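Deliverable D4.2, example record:
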Amino acid sequence: MSGAKSLSVEQRLLRAWYSDSWWLVFLRPVSWLFSGLARARRRRLQNRFQGRAFKAPVAVIGNISLGGSGKTPTIIALVKALAARGIKAGVVSRGYGGRARRFPLEVKFDTDVTLCGDEPKLLALELSSSGCPIVVAPDRLMAVEYLLALTDVDIVLSDDGLQHYSMHRDLEIVLIDGARGLGNGRTLPAGPLREPVERLLEVDLVLINGQADIPGVRADGRIGLQPRLFRHLASNKTVAADNWRESRVVHGVAAIGNPERFAASLQSLGLEVLLHGRDDHKVLSPGDLEYADQLPVIITAKDAVKLGGPIPDNLWVLDVEMVLEPTFVDEFIAKAGLVALDTGADRSAVNDIQD
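Output generated by the structure prediction step:
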C-alpha cells in the first residue's frame, strides 16, 4: 500500500520501465540511438584506458540498470568477507550529492554527509572499525590514484562505475534486482538499461539479489538482505527484528532506488506497511516523517545518515544484513588474482545496511 500523495518524474519513469507501459514505444527510436552511442563510447574509452593497470587490482561492483540493486550493502559485505580472509580492500565512489570544495576526499566516520554523499557516509560508518579507506571523487580514476597513494590495499572496490570507462578495471561484477529483473529489457529512455543486455556476456560475475530466475541471464551467485534489528533513532535502543512489539501497521519511508524492496523486508516481519517512496538520495523532510496517526515510522539506514534536527519519538530504522555466498567470495578472490589467508574465521559475510 502506498501513502505517497504523488509520484515524481523519476518514480513515474521507473514504474513505466518496469511495467513496460505502452507509451514507451514512442521512445524506442531514441533508445536505439542511445544503445549505439553507448557501444561506441565504451569502445573508444576502453581502447584508451583499459590496460593501464594500477598497482592493485580494481573491481567494479555495478549494474546496467537504473533503480537500485544492492551495490552498497554488497560492497560492505564483501569488504568484511575479504578482511576475514586476510585481504585488505579500499573503496572508491562517485560521492553522489557530495558538495566538498575539493576532490578527491577521504571519507571518515565523522565526515559531514553533505560533503561526501549518503552512500559513502554509510560506508564509512559501517566500515570504520575495519580500517578500510574510502575515497570519493566525481572522476573515479582520480579517486583510485589518490587511494593507492594514501594507503597500501590489496584491492580497490568501486561502488558503481561500471560505465566509468576512463577507469581501468580488472574485474566487473554486475548486480541485478531479482524482483524487478531488467524491466522491459530496453535502454534509456525507453527502458531502465544504461547499456544493452548483451553487456552481461562480457562481465566476470553476475549476482542476483534474491532467488528469482531472470530469463536469459546467468546467475553466478545470489545475495539477499535479511532484517536484523529495529533501531529507535532518538534513543539508539535496539530491538531484534523478530521481537517487534509496536504497532503492526507502520509507515515505511524510503528514499532509495527500490522502495518496494524495503517494504518487502518489513512485510516479511509480519508488518502492514504504508509505503512512502521518495526519489533516490533525497533528504527526508519533516513532512516525510510526520503523520497524524502517530504510527511508527520506519526508514532505511541510508536515509538515517542524512537526517538533521529534532528526531521524532516514533522514528525507527530497520537495520538489515546482506548475505554473500562463501563460494562467490572464493571465486571473486580467485578471479582478482588474490591470495586468501586461512584465518579460521566464519566464511559468511553480512552487512547491516539498506541500499
